[in-house]
Amino acid sequence: MSKKLKVGIIGGGIGGVATAVALAQRGIDAHLFERAAEFGEVGAGIQMSPNAVKVIRELGGWDDLAKASFLPECLLGKNWDTGDVNFVIPLKDDCPRLYGAEFFHVHRADLHQLLADRVDMSKVTFSTTCVDVTQDKDKAIAHFADGTTFEADLIIGADGVRSNVRHALFGADDPKFTGNMCYRAVVPFDEQPDFVAPATTFWMGPNGHVVTYYVKGGKGVNIVAVRETEEWVEESWHTRSTVESMMKDFEGWHPNLMKLFERVTEVYSWGLFDRDPMTTWSKGRVTLLGDASHPMLPFLSQGAAMAIEDAYVLAKALDALPDDIEEALRQYEQERLPRTARVQLEARERGRTYHLASKEDQAKRDAEYREQQQKDPHSGGIKANWVYAYNATDFQPVV
Ligand SMILES: Cc1cc2nc3c(=O)[nH]c(=O)nc-3n(C[C@H](O)[C@H](O)[C@H](O)COP(=O)(O)OP(=O)(O)OC[C@H]3O[C@@H](n4cnc5c(N)ncnc54)[C@H](O)[C@@H]3O)c2cc1C
């Protein structure tokens, strides 16, 4: 008879909670450890593209996701000052047909909650910080700041971009500041305003871009406004900034964007960090997942989606190979490493394309966008069709 696995998950962000759900669904005994006193996601939106929605559906969360979400009509690419439309990628009707699931906009707290609702809370420990992970042939041990330990067959580090588990496995290697920061805000609206399209709108301008989309079923507009900067900016969802600073950094951009910015009351700033893709995430009985393994720029809106895909694939590999954890981790990496590395690198490249500084370069890029639009809108624009088409639930471990 196969062994019943016992797993420790470090970190209860979207990746960790998705992992807890995916493991529990397969009858694997998983305990989650979160350093915060309770679960909580920040007050911001998140795009859930079809590749992530396919997994959430398998995890049983589709109904709750659909209820909490906004369904955008399309993904719009606009010029920063004229507002000219360079590409329109239809989403609402096309995503289920082309990719097998919807493209949703949701509030992060709602997404986290619908996953957390599927977690057995008796298997969650809050206010506990993992400081180290050790292992021997038979077990992995998570060590916590209060001196306690947890022994398991496998420890999964889902502890984000500054992962202690990653540090324990691979040594010190700080994430790199990418020279980009972003302002983020959510503006509440009773009615959808005529100056914000019911779309994911990418405004592309010199040395920056702005993404706007509805959340809360259309009762709020999420803003992510990215600026290149030489100054190092702290990476934190909780660092306050000012509307004045945001308005100043986007001076001269389209009046509709300015109208939206004027309505912002609370704004936060965030330094964007990433890492180069790794060649492995695992050692023995310890592995990584989500931002701990492949932090990326948010320019393809995929960090959480990748963590959700990782969670599903890892759970399926462990379920199929409970007696051979190293082989399960090898197959997990074989499936996930090439994909996440490509998304990491292409997200970086999108930054360069979106942020072209000279009018000539922008005109050339926009002409290419329009030409591609005529041929096939789905393979143009932000060029993410290959990201959406992937289906993590198709993964078949080799036993
Ligand atoms: C501006 C912006 C916009 C984005 N938009 C999108 C989008 O539209 N779509 C998308 O898919 N992705 C998006 N992302 C990316 C996404 O937010 C992240 O990739 C995702 O949240 C990563 O989840 P995670 O669970 O791996 O890590 P985290 O969310 O960082 O979670 C890590 C968890 O571990 C806990 N923790 C950390 N260290 C320890 C420790 N030592 N012990 C115990 N607990 C610990 C933390 O408290 C936290 O709860 C965006 C990112 C940014 C910055």
UniProtKB/TrEMBL annotation:
Residues 354-378 have a biased composition (Basic and acidic residues). InterPro entries: FAD-bd (IPR002938), FAD-dep_Monooxygenase_BioMet (IPR050493), FAD/NAD-bd_sf (IPR036188). Residues 5-343 form the FAD-binding domain. GO terms for molecular function: monooxygenase activity. Its cofactor is FAD. Residues 354-380 are annotated as: Disordered. Keywords: FAD, Flavoprotein, Monooxygenase, Oxidoreductase. This is FAD-dependent monooxygenase. It comes from Mesopusillimonas faecipullorum. The lineage of its organism: Bacteria, Pseudomonadati, Pseudomonadota, Betaproteobacteria, Burkholderiales.
